[in-house]
């Protein structure tokens, strides 16, 4: 494979920190990656959401997604910084192979036009193996009994 893999790091910040501090965390982790020679592809704050289970007595958290492209050595540096931070309550880095994700656009130009629903064609009552279904078997039995 000629493409380098890219990585997605999702981390959850404590819900009680102010928004300015959230922005400083976004910048801090992007700078850590840039210092290690990694290209930061995307850095998105996903907002405050309810957690599936309590983490460190928190029921909510601020989700942040960070996409970066590199050789993999930067993950240890990034996760060490997150582990030492008291504001990060969870983090997970996933290695993604394949093409880079396309950024989502908010314009209506890229949305497909809504067309009328396609009517289903009439299908036979037999399944893909061409075996008669239960109703056909009952009809055959009834016909045999009548004869």
Explain what you see.
The protein is of the alpha+beta class and 147 residues long. It has a domain at 6-96: Ribosomal protein S6/Translation elongation factor EF1B (Alpha-Beta Plaits). Helices cover 29% and strands 31% of the residues. The protein has 3 helices and 4 strands; from the N terminus they run E-H-E-E-H-E-H. The chain has helices spanning 19-35, 73-84, 134-146; strands spanning 6-13, 39-55, 58-69, 88-96. A 4-stranded antiparallel β-sheet has the order 2-3-1-4. Strand 2 (39-55) and strand 3 (58-69) form a beta hairpin. It starts with 5 loop residues before the first strand and ends with a helix. The model is unreliable at 105-129 (pLDDT under 50).
For the secondary structure, the number of strands is 4
Q: Helices and strands, in N-to-C order?
A: EHEEHEH
Give a short account of the largest sheet.
4 strands, antiparallel
CATH superfamily grouping of the domain at 6-96 = Ribosomal protein S6/Translation elongation factor EF1B
